[in-house]
Automatic annotation (TrEMBL), chains A, B:
InterPro entries: Homeodomain-like_sf, HTH-type_TetR-like_transc_reg, HTH_TetR
Keywords: DNA-binding, Transcription, Transcription regulation
Species assigned in the record: Nocardiopsis coralli
Sequence ranges assigned to domain HTH tetR-type in this UniProt record: 13-73
Chain residues forming the annotated DNA-binding region: 36-55
Protein name: TetR/AcrR family transcriptional regulator
Length: 205, 205
DNA sequence: ACTTCTATTGACACTACGCCAACAACGGCA
DNA sequence: TGCCGTTGTTGGCGTAGTGTCAATAGAAGT
């Protein structure tokens, strides 16, 4: 007699999440093209076609994974005390480090998939995430409503975001920096950008 | 009668470069998996199998492209005057901006392929390039032979490198920052890291 | 128990990749 | 000049991955 691996019929949402969970893991540890849909299907205990049924194509499934992993919890910039900019930014950075430390591997594989400027869709998702992060920082610095030179300001903060990610990786992966180091570095750097560089740059056409 | 497209027999090196040139273009404008070897072969006026002959596999060809695009010209940190750290760093940043501006599209597609932590090979190539860039900066800042806290220092500079890339992108692609802005931002930021953050962080275990 | 709905399956068509034996262009040698 | 060996180059074969779709079979409602 056959092993009783009869087909399970699940709610679409449930099946969807099961597949997504597997995909998240595999895409996290290998390249896009090094992961086959068959493999995802197999590990999810499902036939390959079903994945196309739920997500359309492999690429769409991948984008869904990236999207899901890049949600930055808004808690990072919420309920900040009404003190100095310095202190607010410091708290914000601290919360960020908390989030990253807690979701270590998930966050790592999230930024691991960074393929900037390669295809429109991935790029769009990443850019959106960056904008959200930028909002958080500006909010913490109480500079959300700067209008003059707004774009320059945002551009600088976006660039800073890259350093933030890179530094976090240095901490988590290589261990070359510890948490306290990061805190100092990230806090003072963004303050330097906002309080020194931005005013200096502000005039240039 | 057929067009006289008889087969050309070239020197291996020459054929190799022709294929690489096409591959560079295509991988530059589309994702790895969105570019087929057949397409590269076609545009290079060559049969698909020949590419396997020269590069082994598609992935190896890709890695070759990435490797070739990431060579940072050492001229950036060469022959710097023996003046203050500030001025030397300033010159270094300026030269960097020159390089980037001149090789605009090539550089953009180079960093476009950044896929950190995805597969070992790509990661390795990127890390090596980062180390070289770090050397340049430390050399400019006359801090090449710092021993105490060397790893922290390098880690910070590597992280700074990410900001440098991101800021350059902001300049070239979005135009949100101009060259003068970048110069101020990049120069003062790295000085801030080296002269303020590094000493502050130095003690922490 | 029967029907209905739809989640799930299996098979088909197509494309892409790696491999390999056969072919032919070019340089050497008589 | 004409043959000949080296090797750059080709075309085709086998396999694996992807997307589509009609057919199947759980599960819920009657």
């Amino acid at each position: 007699m056959q092993p009783p691996v009869q087909r399970r019929r699940l709610e679409p949402d449930e099946r969807r999440s099961e597949i997504l969970a597997v995909a998240r893991t595999l895409f996290g540890e290998r390249t896009y093209s090094a992961v086959s849909v068959s493999e995802i299907a197999q590990q999810a205990g499902v036939v390959r076609g079903l994945i196309n049924h739920y997500f359309g194509s492999k690429r769409e499934l991948y984008l869904e994974v990236v999207r899901q992993m890049l949600i930055v919890p808004p808690s990072v910039a919420e309920n900040l005390p009404r003190t100095t900019t310095e202190e607010r930014v410091s708290i914000c950075v601290d919360r960020w480090l908390d989030v990253v430390e807690r979701n270590r591997e998930m966050w790592l594989s999230a930024i691991g998939s960074e393929a900037i400027g390669q295809d429109r869709d991935t790029e769009k998702i990443l850019l959106e995430a960056d904008e959200v992060a930028t909002d958080h920082i500006l909010q913490a610095a109480m500079m959300s409503d700067v209008v003059e030179g707004r774009e320059k300001l945002r551009a600088m903060v976006r660039a800073y975001g890259s350093m933030l990610k890179a530094a976090s990786r240095e901490w988590l992966v290589r261990g070359a920096l510890n948490r306290a180091d990061l805190h100092v570095m990230l806090t003072t750097s963004v303050l330097h950008l906002l309080q020194t560089v931005f005013p200096a740059v502000h005039g240039n056409d």
